Amino acid sequence: MARPSHPPNADSPPKRPRLADVAKMCGVSAATVSRVLNQDAKFSARPEVRQRILEAAATLGYAPDLTARNLIRGKTQIIGVFGSPEMQVGEGINNDAFAGIADAVRDHDYDVFFELTSHHATDSSLPSWRFDGAILVQAPPATLIDDLDHRRIPYVTINEPVGQPVASILTDDVGGTLLAMNHLADLGHRRIAYANAYPGYFRHYSITERHGTIVSFCQEHGLTLVPGHDADFQDGEAFLKNAVEQHHATAVICYDHRIAISVLGASYRLGIPVPGTMSLLCYNDLFPVDRVYPAITTVAVNAREMGRRAARVLIEIMDGQTQPDDVTPVRLDENLIVRDSTAPPPAN
Amino acid sequence: MARPSHPPNADSPPKRPRLADVAKMCGVSAATVSRVLNQDAKFSARPEVRQRILEAAATLGYAPDLTARNLIRGKTQIIGVFGSPEMQVGEGINNDAFAGIADAVRDHDYDVFFELTSHHATDSSLPSWRFDGAILVQAPPATLIDDLDHRRIPYVTINEPVGQPVASILTDDVGGTLLAMNHLADLGHRRIAYANAYPGYFRHYSITERHGTIVSFCQEHGLTLVPGHDADFQDGEAFLKNAVEQHHATAVICYDHRIAISVLGASYRLGIPVPGTMSLLCYNDLFPVDRVYPAITTVAVNAREMGRRAARVLIEIMDGQTQPDDVTPVRLDENLIVRDSTAPPPAN
DNA sequence: CTGTTAGCGCTTTCAT
DNA sequence: ATGAAAGCGCTAACAG
Fold first, then answer.
1. Among A335, B29, B214, B334, which is 20 to 30 Å from A125 by CA?
2. What is the pLDDT of residues B135-162, one digit of tens each?
3. What angle do helix axes A19-26 and A47-60 make, rounded to 10 degrees?
């Protein structure tokens, strides 16, 4: 049983109505229809004609072909958002960054699209699309960057210093790490462990920045960074057996919230009280760090603000309000949010 | 230090090179350039000419204007993905659904874009763009659906039965709920509590389906569903005080993983052993249900497969391989994943 | 092998 | 107040 509107042997392939169809139906020219439908300001049509056009358009179900409109206008009013091929939209801070982009764009006449299919079988990296601007979230493929440069499409980068963007928004991981380390040092911790990134994580400057800052802080302040800090994170229990049981760390810093949750789960399995025996702290103030028990102290990356800033700068440039003279990389502060998982080390 | 490529006082606004520019530079026609650059199969150019064209294009930094190409080809090869205005891309099962869409599209000549800015200040709901097809993930605004119908753009819906899609992919919440209930009943639970959705959640058919199925299962099997099951979820501790401490439920089902995490955290604060005193079970097999302690038993919605199926069907229809005769709503099975948070009720 | 020509569907002067 | 006409940049017949 076929749908009435779509007979299988359709003599008339359901073709979308054109501007000319509406014009013909009303006995006016296409130009007039265009002007009426676009509510052209400096133009008034006879009410009777206007009415006829509106009705005809509705009857036919006319909708303009945006491809044609974009061609003649020379722009699409679309901002493309791109990430690395491995990137998950819901992963880590990305979701917040997107929300920030949406915040900034809300009152402007732009649409924002995120590409879901980063890696293509096809050769060309840019999609069959024309963007007026782009936002790059975390290391997109080099070919994409080349393509953007090539096509003279302005772009800003979030959380990744690549290409020749018109602006670049980063987060101050060094500063955030210092907040965390000072917090632990102030509490009296002297033996620290660091649960580094998962091996599967794509390389990111935050990995080296966080680790490097922790290492140097410990050196400068005479703290002990127990072995294992430079290995990829594999498993919560193995990590704690080494770091806490064997090397007596009293505080564990995790590269991100996911690792922290795994470590916290492992602490229960091994019977290590948190924060009694071991304090726990991680980067990324994301679900579910504030809902687990104990709630986890975190270094918060303000990803939403990063998204906002990025989109705002890009829009200013696209609207011609700003010249992309120099790329001034913005570094946003990170915050320390102290919760229940950090406390002074055990007395013994 | 200004960028060499972008002198601040540019007399020549950096205009993108056109096909004609390349043609002129090579002393050939635009058509020839087009054919060479598009690697037209049934066409061979003199190697010398081809070489000249390639070089000229590279020199000028030529990239085709996709808007024009799309106009003449009459299609964009783009699939748009839309969600409700409130929807977060990283929220719940969305991320998996997107991954599934990407899976399916990978080997096809389509690009997929997700709209990040659902609610516009402008009147028109569809962006200034032309899609060849669309995938709707969770109740998009009615105006969008009208627009799609209007523009004769085929679309499929995921997890939301709306509009007149060419296909519709749903999940079998009734079946999943029965798996969960039977599991608890088999373990010997007789007093069940249900932590329903947060008030902020946008309405979704799963809310009524899950709740309704639990209610009727309890009735039919003589189980007690303790009070509070029809109220919005507010707070883990308040919920447990009522459900477990006051009404002696031995098992708690949560509408989703987020609520389950809150309830689990509250169980620690209130000193209620899980699963010793109270079993815990939730929908959505998402981070971090398998990493917390105890790992949570879940009803898994296969969102990735939903995304795959949706995209696959849509592509088949867009490629003309399938006629959208009747919309046969697909209902995908849910799975029960038993972990450590469910056990027989206490003996007393 | 390659150039010429005719549009794709719409917007926008320039006339009337 | 409205129509005619000229493209936007590219591609695809159709010639040669």
1. B29
2. 999 878 888 888 888 788 899 999 887 8
3. 130
B277 in contact with A, Cβ within 8 Å: no
Q: Give pTM, 2 decimals.
A: 0.90
Residue A6 has a pLDDT of: 37
* Unique residue bearing structure tokens 């990590």: A239
pLDDT at A7 over 60: no
Binary contact (A14, B152; C-beta < 8 A): yes
Q: Residue B95: its chain A contacts at CB < 8 A?
A: 88-91
CA distance linking residue A253 with residue A281, whole number of Å: 5
Q: In Å, how far is B325's CA from the nearest CA of chain A? A: 5
At B108, which amino acid appears? H
Question: What is the Cα–Cα distance from B98 to B306, expressed in whole angstroms?
Answer: 9
The single-letter code of the amino acid at B75 is K
Q: From edge to edge, which strands make up the β-sheet containing B330-332? A: A330-332, A167-171, A155-158, A133-137, A78-83, A111-115, B111-115, B78-83, B133-137, B155-158, B167-171, B330-332
Residue A75 exposed, middle or buried by CB count within 10 Å (0-12, 13-18, 19+) = middle
Asked if residues A307 and A315 have their Cβ atoms less than 8 Å apart, the reply is: no
CA distance to A261, B77, B259, B281, B324, per residue, from B289 (Å): 10, 38, 11, 10, 39
pLDDT tens, position by position, A311-335: 999 999 998 888 777 778 899 999 9
Distance of alpha carbon A194 from alpha carbon A207, whole angstroms: 12
